[in-house]
Amino acid sequence: MTGTPVADGYADLYADKLWSLVPAAHRAADSTTGETPGPLQELLRRVAAQVADIHRSLDRLWEDQSIETCDSWVIPYIAQLLATNLVASMDARGQRLDVANTIYYRRRKGTVALLEQLAADVTGFDARVVEFFRSLGRTRHGLDPEIGRPADDTTDPTGARQLQHAEGLAGLLTHTPSGGLADLRNPLGATLTGTAFDEFHHRLDARRGVGARGWYGISKVGFFLWRTVSLQVDRATPVPVAGCPNHYSFDPTGRQIPLFQAAARSAGDYGEHWLPQAAWQLPAPITGPLWDALADEAAPAPGPLAYPDPHASLWPASVSVRAAGAADPLDLSQVLLWPEVGRFAVAAGPADVEVGYHHGLFSRIGAGPYDRRQLGTPARPDPAPVQQIVGGSATTLPAALAALGGTGTVIVADGLTLSATAPVGSASTPIVDVTVRAADQRRAVIRTAAGAGPWIFTGAPAGTPPARLRLEGMLLSGSDLVLRGRFDDVTLSCCTIDPGTGGNLRRPATVWEPGVDGRELSPSTIWIEGAVRSLTLDRCITGPIRTRYGGLASQLTAQNSIVQGLPTALGPDLVNAPVFDADTLVSALHHRGDPLTDWLAGQLSPAAAAVVAAHVDAAPVADLQPILNDLQKIIDGPLLWTADRFADRPLRASTQTAVISTPTPTGEPLRALNRELLAEAYPLALADAAIATDAGTVTLDRCTMLGAAYLHRLQCSETILDDVVRVNNAQDGCVRFSVWTTDSALPRRYESAQVPAGSPIFVSRRYGEWGYAQVHDGADTAIVSASTGGVPSIVTGSHDGSEMGVYCRDGAAIKDRSLLIKLGEYLPVGLTPVLVHLPTPDNDGETRRGRPWPAT
């Protein structure tokens, strides 16, 4: 009755029994062959399947009487018996908890403890409830409890201060009296202003409570919801900081990322044992003042600014550093930590260290130490033979890959960094069925040495059965991933192919931001050079996906994934920019199939013309430099555009406006315009893109694509297309419940919203930060139009009312609505809930994070 196939044999048993009751004459006449079932036998098989369902239902009658063990379809019936206001938008987990705790909820209706547990049960997020009337600044009156000297007495021999803290008459950290003036002397207490742990008092805010405004009022109750997931990394190899001995970055790719706290509340912390959550117990970024306060508390003689909680600790539950191979962490006194940028330093001691830490993301996608299994999806068996290796060595993975042959599995058992790869398969020994994955609930990290070549997978040659390849739980940084030969199925599950990090305002002259060791954080690209029937991305974060040398992906499917393509060059100089598919460019010049290409071919020098004449389609170019030199001269010359040359070349509206503007651009703007014209005319070869293919169908389901795309066919649902997307065959396919950008050429659109390219709708676009690709609460202000009637929304615009994009499956907007419905039942009359999502972005849309460490 659950809808999931059950291998109990009941269906076969009843099918055989019913078939045996049919007279032999009818059985013989039902089919002309003894192997193929006839229509009568098939009919009886379907009847038997229904009988098997009834049998299972009868077997489960006892279990279906309990909400803990019943099937999902039974939950509404039990809820009806209790007259519970069951919220239809809640998932099965939330509905089951709602029914199971109904009596408990009703007995404690209206209390802060019940409201906090209700928020956690309905949404699944860590929550803290704050009565905002307690944060109002006001003049004290005669009915208020007296606040005397104990609030200022540091020794507090009578325990009066503890009593004032317990009664909410004084701040836990700052000792600010209720309704009184703020005491700013405690750094941690001051930095918690405007959070769920604010100890100061504010004037009345009469605005409607939404997000970060309208909090403080007599009738308002704040529900602070921590929607991020704090992912634990138990063993990782830190990256040494260039020029700073004994300084390291926690992140194994060399990024400076904020460290997170481990969520410390369990189900047993509610009920009779409930206490409000403390700042150090929540899945939030670790701030410098909080770390300093807790480190001071852990010292032999805590100072006056230590965190006033004897159980408070982040070491080693949230963060740890230990000598390589050691079981116990170093003493905290040996480690100096900067949590906001993910950096630490150790005293002179172990030469090699390992780290454990937590990092934040809105969902469990990409390579991470979490359970990768999905309910209802059977696990794919590992092809034999199976090899298991450990990280930390440059030779373990190459040796294991070299020993694979055509069939086998390599499992990486820990999260220590591997620094080298090896080709898998070859022309003589192609891949038949290969799996390379991390162990269960582990993350395999591969960060190749600078200058290392791509990681090449070679499938079957023509005339042989195509190959199968699966990569799971892998983080690849520093190398591209190349697919050659013929593949029937290539699957990347829960993988991170490093999307790179572009240069920022502090380093305007760099294309890529450097890591702490000075290496550029450039993206890793998935190159398709062979023929792949099906390429599937499931819960992945990747850099660009492109074809070259005649490569083909007949069906490229991405679900619950992020694909990012960043700008790869500064300025209009073509000779210093990458050419993504030289074969496409040179083949076009060789065949001269349109006016622009014919004109460009006529401008080539003899040396470049000789290279073009000698080129063979779908092959690497022997010497591209003469062609690039000639194209650079065209870029540096007069305006490239004429109506005849670009008659069949679609251009962006901004580019069309620039070419017909008066007066014509000159100098550097003209060179930049010519460079853009070439890129838009030959996008597969010269344009930056997240996905670039000239054939096949691309299907995006609950994805976020950061960057432009050039596709042949497109099927798109619950997806954010952040930049211009050009589809050659716009008569086929559909874009539904998605975000698309101006200037895109797309198939028909349904219930979708239009935004300008690159709109500020995300908390962060920088991989590694907790808000990466997460839609912020004010994203709907960027919408300029909708494809159909109604009010479009990015935050609630998916088919089920969740947000569009990669985090659609988490249903955050649905959980918010479900919580508001339940609060209407359990919140005291006259009070207004205010939902606050945490962590929060700064005013500029960037994450609250420490500034990167200065250059050394």
Automatic annotation (TrEMBL):
Q: What is this protein called?
A: Uncharacterized protein
